[in-house]
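Hi P.,

Sorry for the delay on this. The queue was packed all week, but I finally got your sequence through. Input first:
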Amino acid sequence: MIPRRDIRIFNSSLMREFLSYIFEKNRGSDTSFFKNSLGDYFNNHNIFLLGRGRQALHLAIDSVDYNAGDEIIIPNYYLKALISLLKSKGLEVVFCDINEKTLSNDLDDTLNKINNNTKFIILSHMFGVCQDIEKFIKKAKEKKKDIIIIEDCAHRLWL
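Then the structure:
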């Protein structure tokens, strides 16, 4: 995860490499330099480059054990294609309200929706506005220790 408040990344060689890769006309080119740059930045070279955010979500969900019927709490404006993906995995989608200041999951409404069947929460950052993720995770884990929170930053990087 790219630290949300670390703007050094925007002036780094990593960002230049990332933008070069994204805007290069031939995206089939060698991505090893970009992948290695990411690994160096995060001090971890277990990097997967994926073509779409939904592929990342698919990989994140499938990387943990869950059962059909487990619930996933998502913001009520979430992308329809991702809702279909979650349902195709047998997850029960539970919508939460959004906070008008953060444009992300409303903490109180999300906490009220956590129950014994809740396995995941997707916490989405829209339009470059970030939720206080540390507080959110702390409160959610107080309610249910084994809950998995997936932070969706797809709309975060560009602003």
